[in-house]
Amino acid sequence: MSGSYGASITGVARSTLTNQQPNPAVEPSLPHWFAVQTRYRFEKKVAAELTRKNCEVYLPTLTEHHTWSDRQKVVTTPLFPGYAFVHIDQSRNARQAVLQTAGVIGFVSFGGVVAAVPPKQIEDLKLLLQQKGRFSLHPFVKTGQRVRIRGGSLHGLEGVLLHHEGEKLVISIESIQRSLAIEIKGYELELA
User: Fold this and answer.
1) What is the 8-class DSSP label of residue 93?
2) For the whole model, what pTM was predicted?
3) Interatomic CA distance for residues 105 and 39, integer angstroms
């Protein structure tokens, strides 16, 4: 994948979360960014409809060049299929406006609490997409998670991610309680 563009669709931010209790760490009167889950291939329609409702929406997109034997075409697709971001307050009316949008499944929540997306993450994402640099999607992995190497000479090797920054993977042989740490710089990882 090569660079992409982030489509920022803005309007007046007036929407909010599901009927769940608001996150106490988030001040209720100020607008915050929230991720909403959409129906399959409804991301652009949801963004357009929320914009029509005067909600601020951010739908990061990826521009790809597809080549077939008879033609070439530039295709713009959502960077994160099935998701869009809305900048809303936590009022009941704002939440209902978002939830009553065709194609919206609901707000992304953890443990029954709708999770706000830190503004810095949205800003960083916008900056990355504006620079049109080369990047690729990467599975979300954390230190301590069991992962598998994808591709290359170590394809299929599984272990526990030790240090993401140092890119070390620990391979454990549980029956003899011994482990090896290997450098995995340059390899793609996926959850095992």
Assistant:
1) H
2) 0.65
3) 6
* Residue 158: per-residue pLDDT: 76
Helix, strand and coil percent figures for the chain, each rounded to 5: 15, 40, 45
Which of 21, 3, 122, 15 has its CA nearest to residue 61?
3
Cα-based distances in Å from 42 to 12, 19, 108, 137: 22, 22, 16, 20
6-130: CATH homologous superfamily?
NusG, N-terminal domain (3.30.70.940)
Question: Is there a contact between 78 and 60 (Cβ–Cβ < 8 Å)?
Answer: yes
DSSP code per residue over 98-157: HHTSTTEEEE-EETTEEPEEPHHHHHHHHHHHHTT----------TT-EEEEESSTTTT-
The CA distance from 171 to 184, in Å, is 11
Contact 53, 15 (CB under 8 A): yes
In whole angstroms, give the CA distance from residue 18 to residue 1: 34
Plot region of 99 (φ>0 → left; ψ -120 to 50 → alpha; else → beta): alpha
pLDDT, averaged across the chain: 77
